[in-house]
Amino acid sequence: VIFILATTEVHKIPVTVLSRCQRYDFRRITIDTIAARLRELADAEEIRVEEKALRYVAKAADGSMRDALSLEVLGAVDSSVFSELLRAVLAKDTTACMKKLEEMVIQGRELGQFVTDFIWYLRNLLVLKTADDAENMLDMSEDNLKLLREEAEMISGETLMRFIRIFSELANQIRYASQKR
Question: Hey, is 168 helix, strand or coil?
C-alpha cells in the first residue's frame, strides 16, 4: 500500500511519520516558464498575443500553470492608473482617489485584481528604491521605469512597507466582501 500525503504544513507532521516518507517539495513556477508555455500554446492554436500580455497573465497566475491556463478576464489596468492613484494618496487627495476607483468600477474592472496589481506596483517601487540591480529585476518599459523612479523619490521605504501591508490585508478582506467597492 502506498499513501500519498500532500500538505502545505509539513512542520505539523510527526517526526515518526516523516522519517518513513519520501519527501518532494513543490515550488511555484517562474513567470518566464509560464510565459514561455503560454507562448507555445498560443502559437500552436495560431492565436496572436503580445508578449506583455503573456507575461501579465503569467504574473497573475502567481506560480500556478493551471491558473495561468484558466485565467480569462483579469480586468487589467495600465500601470499609469496606479501611478495616478499613488500620487493622489501621497497628496492626501481623497476625492481624486475615490474618482479613480469609481472610474475602475465603471470600466468593469475586478476590484480584487486591481488591489493585487496595486500591491505589485508598490512592491516594484520598493524594489527600485532598495535593490542595486532593480532595473534588471523589474520587467517593464523604460517609460514605466521613469515614472517609478520619480515616485521612489516621493515616498519612504517605511511608508511603502506600510502601504503594502495595508493593501495586503485589504486583498484578503475584499475576497469575502459582499460590497467590494
Answer: helix
Q: The C-alpha cell of 68 is what?
A: 495561468
HEC states along 63-114? CCHHHHHHCCCCCCCCHHHHHHHHHHHHCCCHHHHHHHHHHHHHCCCCHHHH
Please give the grid coordinates belonging to residue 79.
Answer: 500601470
Residue with cell 465603471: 106
User: What does the pLDDT average to over 134-162?
Assistant: 82
CA-based R_g, the chain, Å = 20
Contact call for residues 105 and 129 (beta carbons, < 8 A): no
Quick check: pTM over 0.70? Answer: no
How far apart CA 151 and CA 170 sit, in angstroms, is 22
Report yes or no: 57 and 68 within 8 Å, Cβ to Cβ.
yes
Nearest 5°: the CA angle 123, 127, 128 is: 115
